Amino acid sequence: MTPTIRIGLAGLGRMGRIHAASLSGRCPSARLACVFDASEGAAAQVGEQFGVPVAPSYEDMLADEAIDAVAIATPTGTHAELVTRASRAGKHVFCEKPISLDRQATLGAIEAARAAGVTFQVGFHRRFDPDWAAAADRIRAGELGDVYLFRTSLRDMNPPDPAFLAGAGGFFADVTIHDLDTARWMVGEIVEVTAHGAALSDPGFADIGDIDTAVVVLRFENGALGVIDNSRAAGYGYECSTEVMGRNATVRIDHPQYRNYEWRTPGAASHGPPRDFEQRFPDAYAAELESFAQCVRDGTPARVTGHDALAAFDLARAAGESWRWGRTVLVEPQRTEAGVIYTVKQESR
CATH no. for residue 61? Predict the structure, then answer.
């Protein structure tokens, strides 16, 4: 029989609970083996809900020889340390993005996983959504031809309390990072980043030095252009859409709906948009963990690596610099055996 990968889950906030549900019934190659959270009450509740043991501590989880891998969905500031500790314990690691808000800590976690020889995958779920994955496969097959334009939107329905975001690393590292990863994945490497942002829905965002609305313009290495628009306060619902225009064709991923019916009245037809990412991406969240488990089982490389996460983080930092200083930031993708590493060129204008 094909072995099932036993995964311990650390962090039981919103994303952790999504992953717990996926591992408990939607991932054929994996199963939820135990859970841990700094809140004993949260851990007990999730453990009871899914019928799995609660680890007394993260160290106990790592010491459990029955655990093959860990999934980390704790607060961002803890990711790098937990990745490093799991790697040194010989556990394969799935980690939510970003790896860290500190670049050196990110590099340290990547190196720890490499040195230990464990599988290390970062949670950019859009790469596993059936629509985006199919579009990317056809682009790679050459059906689109030369890419001219990339456009993507990521908009939340309602803004969070600005105080909740104080440790999130800023708008670009928290939100736009997903679009920057999608841009690299679907089109190619980036050489220019120009970002504009504003705090419009709540003055609290400006009070913490952040924004709630942004437009980012990209220039790709192959000459194509890209436009990203993001909002924390779209109001009408949650939207995540992408369009790639090429010489031979255009692919558009749009009009998501979580219910498959349309309500028709005289002069109008409507369907409900999803309210949040949880409603929009249930299949992607399960698929990314299933892919991770298959890579652990088969010894194949992760489809989203630590260097992919580092590249998206560096581009998000470039977007933040562009917004703060009101200038285009020139970046240079450097190809290494491990992956692409971005550096900011001194002649940014």
Answer: 3.40.50.720
Residue 301 covered by a domain: no
Residue span of the structural domain in which 205 resides: 130-276+309-344
Distance CA 312, CA 307 (A): 9
Reported confidence tier of residue 348, pLDDT bands at 50, 70, 90 = low
Report pLDDT for 182. Answer: 98
pTM value is 0.94
Spatial neighbors of 63 by CB under 8 A, at least 6 apart, are 89
Opening angle at CA 306, ends 146 and 328, nearest 5? 55
Dist CA 232 CA 322 (whole Å): 20
Contact assessment for residue 96 and residue 73, using Cβ atoms and an 8 Å cutoff: yes
- The predicted-structure confidence for 43-97, as pLDDT tens digits, reads as follows 999 999 999 999 999 999 999 999 999 999 999 999 999 999 999 999 999 999 9
Question: Rounded to an integer, what distance in angstroms lies between the CA atom of residue 76 and that of residue 138?
Answer: 34
Q: The tokens 């072995």 sit on which residue?
A: 3
State residue 1's pLDDT score. 52
Residue 102 and residue 234 in one domain: no
Residue count of the chain, please give it. Answer: 349
Q: How far is 32 from 38, CA to CA, in rounded Å?
A: 18
Please check whether residues 66 and 140 belong to one and the same domain: no
Q: How many CB atoms lie within 10 A of CB 33?
A: 22
- Domains in the chain, number: 2
Are 206 and 154 in the same domain? yes
Residue 245 tokens, joined: 């225009």
* 23 vs 264 pLDDT, higher one: 23
Let me know: does 176 contact 153? Beta carbons within 8 Å. Answer: no
User: Is 101 strand, coil or helix?
Assistant: coil
User: Under a CB-based contact definition with an 8 Å cutoff, are residues 344 and 330 in contact?
Assistant: yes
- Average predicted confidence (pLDDT) for the chain: 94
